[in-house]
Amino acid sequence: MNSGGWDMWVLLALSIAVVTVVGERLWFFSSQHGDTKGLLRQIGAKVAANDLPGAVKVCQQNKGMLPRVLEFGLKRGDKNRADITDALSIALMEHLSALERNLGIIGTIAVIAPFVGLSGTVLGIIRAFSDIASKGNSSPAVVAGGVSEALITTFGGLVVAIVAVIFFNFFKTRIKSYNQEMIVAANQLAELLHFHNTGAAIPTDLYQPAGAPAK
Hints:
mainly alpha; 2 domains; 7 helices
């Protein structure tokens, strides 16, 4: 008797989808710029030296979304602070969807996988008892064998759901952290450009870490 049918194929498809999305998201985040403070130090030094084209070039030489956002703001560096802030906000919003791309897929799988497994178990148990009734053999060994086989789908559904939940929460945390990093960096760039445009001396603490010597 085979209690696994469509349910096992569905669970397999869900497993493949989870692995695919997780792999794509891991690759995506690995391709993002990892040293936000280092990037700001390079940009800040260029802005302080009145070299906005050089600051733009720094962004172009680095990978990821953050350099693209900061480049967008630098190219509007001659505007007033409100316009620069608005431009940076627009750039951040445009890139937010890329951060959350495909995340809803594993969130959905985390919800439906246990139900797929449970439905397969229920149908498997029904088939087990139907076979017992038709064959007239109701021994405990036969019943236990059919039920244990059917429960495999529940276990499979739970495994898929647990993996999906773990990575869903991991990526949500990573998105929140990276989004916050981009917001802080955008605000620091707006401040840098504000000082630059007003002709005021740019405080080194805007782009230098605490205790670092000014360049």
